[in-house]
């Protein structure tokens, strides 16, 4: 797995768009093998997964049973991937963010836009598979990168996918939400929502984001997180196994996260500075529970 990641990282670090595309496909293939290979294959030993990781086969037999969310934490390949993500050298999310920064410096063409879209899609999946990588977005420079991608100069497809990444970056991480607020993220979102140039489909995505933002906050170590690949407590326990983080250190992190949490009423006041009908959104959120919460 390390060899494959090393090869992919070399490719996406290039200034050649063809090499970047190849590297992104290699990362996609690795994630596909981890997530989509049959449950029967997941019982193989970690060493066998590592030996076969350099040959990616995303096809599945019609009679094979795909892995479920419950299968992943017990899968040797996933555990190996998770372990590698805890270190800077093999962290996929950080490499993808660097790639995005480089791609934004390219001349805006359809091929460059497709590379940005592919990178965002992979970043979204990586943040779901490895929740601790969301801590990267406590840095304002990385959060600003997402806000830059929401600029109206970018195609609606890129803006929509950026919103998915942003939601995942904020999910279960109140610290990241505070960074988002501090660098005028709410202004960026509401300006796009009110803009006449914003497409109807994108406005729907922006509205969904506002509902998400107004939801009660839950830290990764403070409770369950129903809509991620790995539930919070399970990912935290797996992080402890793979990185050697002790319970005492986890409790300290939980205490810090607790201090960062804001209520829906507090966030309603913040959002109200930029949007006039926030009270209606909050009432609708409480009555209809659009996210099943």
From TrEMBL:
<keyword id="KW-0131">Cell cycle</keyword>
<dbReference type="Pfam" id="PF08045">
    <property type="entry name" value="CDC14"/>
</dbReference>
<keyword id="KW-0132">Cell division</keyword>
<protein>
    <submittedName>
        <fullName>Cell division control protein 14</fullName>
    </submittedName>
</protein>
<feature type="region of interest" description="Disordered">
    <location>
        <begin position="242"/>
        <end position="264"/>
    </location>
</feature>
<dbReference type="GO" id="GO:0051301">
    <property type="term" value="P:cell division"/>
</dbReference>
<feature type="region of interest" description="Disordered">
    <location>
        <begin position="41"/>
        <end position="70"/>
    </location>
</feature>
<dbReference type="InterPro" id="IPR012535">
    <property type="entry name" value="Cell_div_Cdc14"/>
</dbReference>
<feature type="compositionally biased region" description="Acidic residues">
    <location>
        <begin position="246"/>
        <end position="257"/>
    </location>
</feature>
């Amino acid at each position: 797995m390390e060899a494959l990641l090393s090869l992919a990282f070399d490719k996406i670090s290039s200034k050649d768009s063809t090499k970047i595309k190849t590297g992104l496909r290699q990362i996609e293939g690795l994630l596909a093998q981890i997530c989509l290979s049959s449950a029967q294959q997941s019982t193989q030993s970690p060493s066998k997964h590592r030996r076969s990781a350099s040959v990616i086969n995303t096809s599945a037999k019609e009679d094979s049973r795909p892995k479920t969310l419950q299968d992943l934490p017990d899968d040797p390949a996933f555990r190996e991937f998770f372990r590698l993500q805890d270190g800077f050298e093999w962290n996929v999310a950080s490499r993808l963010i660097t790639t995005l920064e480089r791609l934004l410096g390219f001349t805006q063409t359809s091929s460059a836009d497709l590379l940005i879209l592919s990178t965002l899609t992979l970043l979204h999946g990586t943040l779901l598979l490895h929740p601790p990588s969301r801590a990267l977005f406590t840095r304002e420079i990385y959060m600003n990168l997402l806000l830059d991608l929401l600029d109206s100069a970018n195609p609606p497809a890129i803006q929509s996918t950026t919103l998915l990444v942003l939601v995942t970056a904020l999910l279960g991480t109140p610290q990241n939400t505070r960074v988002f607020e501090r660098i005028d993220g709410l202004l960026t979102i509401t300006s796009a929502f009110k803009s006449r140039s914003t497409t109807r489909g994108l406005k729907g995505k922006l509205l969904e984001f506002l509902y998400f933002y107004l939801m009660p906050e839950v830290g990764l170590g403070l409770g369950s997180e129903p809509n991620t690949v790995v539930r919070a407590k399970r990912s935290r326990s797996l992080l402890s196994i793979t990185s050697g983080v002790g319970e005492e250190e986890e409790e300290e992190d939980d205490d810090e996260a607790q201090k960062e949490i804001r209520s829906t009423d507090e966030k309603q006041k913040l959002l109200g500075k930029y949007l006039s009908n926030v009270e209606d959104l909050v009432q609708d959120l409480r009555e209809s529970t659009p996210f099943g919460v």
